[in-house]
């Protein structure tokens, strides 16, 4: 029988929750913390000292020896530098353990080795981390011991954001401010803010660690750079939602326990479409916490996999020929008194507000489709988006049949009185429809799908931070809300103005709605006719960050300065070039040190068989034929290897980051493909005992 897992007592065991703060803090300090959490501002140093002391006591009671400011630099992963609580011993030689309010609130880190895209010259290398008081402090249990982790934002000396967190927090604030204007216009006097909520579903692969370590491509690039498909892929659809194998189940059980301890609401687990692919979804929560938790989910997956003798692959496309992994970013906006602005609601008033909000979101997505596309780009995602397994690189919105029809009627006649199907909700406006959202309507090919009371942004890559995507979403929607509020706050006849605005938004931005098959070639052509951007790769999308439109948007709302945007563009190009460079080097290494020598050994074996058969007076037709064929492919590989070496050398030396990135995309990647093709053909011919690395079948089916 299984041991009993006491989820209630496990949950948030390692988190300094509100409940624990209440217990450990004097009432007035607790109140101050809660006030800063909900209204912003800064904690007084006096209060900070008391909070730090309480945190330290709690942490030490739970075995902590160190604390760290835990942050999310532009590497896309997290960073931490541990400091022990140890202070100078007293005169008797007894050690003192201390943690001050100052150390809690603000940290200083030498930032010179983090990507900054030119924002910080080395002589100004200081970076500062500041506590994000809205995200809970937690304990991380590691081989290093137990560490008190303080979620922080990371900025340069001059206050420029050097991380994923700062812009997200800024965007949440502006989304709240602008959404509140609409909330008030519709008569809600109780709400004080609007919160962006996010639930990020995480896909991943698990492979055996021993085999993983035998493949340099997995170790260095996180994905296979060589390899032919196993005889069986995902064509039988037998893995999706299939019974969870024991070894995987044991991993999932441990993973859940570790996540629950961290206060992560790990909720759903299942096998995904590809062999060896799985998914975990937590319950949605405030966007910045969801971002922290998503990082913890990824990190914990890797750690627990290791413990189980496996490696967790978070790359967007670890294996060619089967599905890659993404991160569906479910997003909605809710008032602090519990009204979801994306929920059609129960009253006529709420239904009209819903239609207005929807029309504003459509407008935002249409106007800034390029930015949304950019926000979901990372190197690995280039192998996934538009590959008939993930949404295309073209951004469009799926509304479902019923809502799409409502929009169509409104646009065509200015009224929408018919409903295709479903029950009724009263809008109280004769020209607007009574409707009910048809939640069963599903479209898996859409990048941005309305799913009942939230939007699901499906383009984000599995390894990527969800920071950029949600920052862009919050900001573009804030802009659209702001424009709507500007009109409606000054309207003489509110109802009429709302109606007109809904119609206007839908009419002007209807082109972004697409309910059909996003995987089809027809859509690519149709999207082009509609004038929607199709930014095929990460590097094609970078310039969207610095268009005048983007700068006006981001500077206008104080999310990024032009300089910050330029720095992020630089980092994008640089990361791209560096990543492909690593992949190319790994291929060169594997080809010259593993694959080619093995194939040569195989040709040697064949040649001696040919010779000995001839000596025995038998004509070795098959062996000779094989030898010729292997030799030809070997020649092809050898030539392709040479080309790849040359292309990489020349790309590497290009000064301009943008040109360098494009050079890698247009020349190095094709050279990589040309090397892989003959190698993969050889894998099919060469004796398995001689083939130097575990195959797709070994990795995906023999766990
Ligand atoms: P799916 O059918 O896509 O699996 P689920 O209902 O299981 O949909 O939700 C997937 C994710 O969306 C979960 O993380 C869930 O918590 C989150 N989610 C549900 N409702 C909302 C909402 N209103 N806002 C944001 N995320 C939500
Ligand atoms: Mg989903």
Task: Tag the structure with descriptive keywords.
binds magnesium ion; 13% strand; binds adenosine-5'-diphosphate; alpha+beta; six-stranded mixed β-sheet; 703 residues; nine-stranded mixed β-sheet
Write a concise synopsis of the structure shown.
This protein has 703 residues and is of the alpha+beta class.
Main β sheet profile: 9 strands, mixed
Number of strands: 17
Enumerate the distinct ligands.
adenosine-5'-diphosphate, magnesium ion
Helix/strand class: alpha+beta
Number of H- or I-type helical stretches: 22
> How much strand?
5-15%
Helix content: 40-55%
* Uncertain ranges: none
| Overall mean confidence score, pLDDT | 92
Using the alpha-carbon principal axes, give the shape: globular
Cα(first) to Cα(last) distance is 24 Å
Rg, rounded, reads: 28 Å
Plain-language structure description:
By secondary structure, this protein is of the alpha+beta class. About 50% of the residues lie in helices and about 15% in strands. It has 22 helices and 17 strands. The chain has helices at about 5-10, 20-25, 25-40, 45-60, 100-105, 165-185, 210-215, 215-220, 245-260, 285-305, 350-365, 370-375, 400-415, 465-490, 495-510, 520-530, 540, 550-555, 560-615, 620-650, 655-685, 695-700; strands at about 65-70, 85, 85, 95, 105-110, 125-130, 140, 145-155, 195-210, 265-270, 275-280, 285, 310-315, 325-335, 395-400, 450, 455. The strands form three sheets. Strands 9, 10, 11, 12, 13, 14, 15, 16 and 17 form a nine-stranded mixed sheet that branches. The model has no long low-confidence stretch (mean pLDDT about 90). Magnesium ion (MG) binds near residues 201, 328 and 456. Adenosine-5'-diphosphate binds near residues 198, 201, 283, 330 and 332.
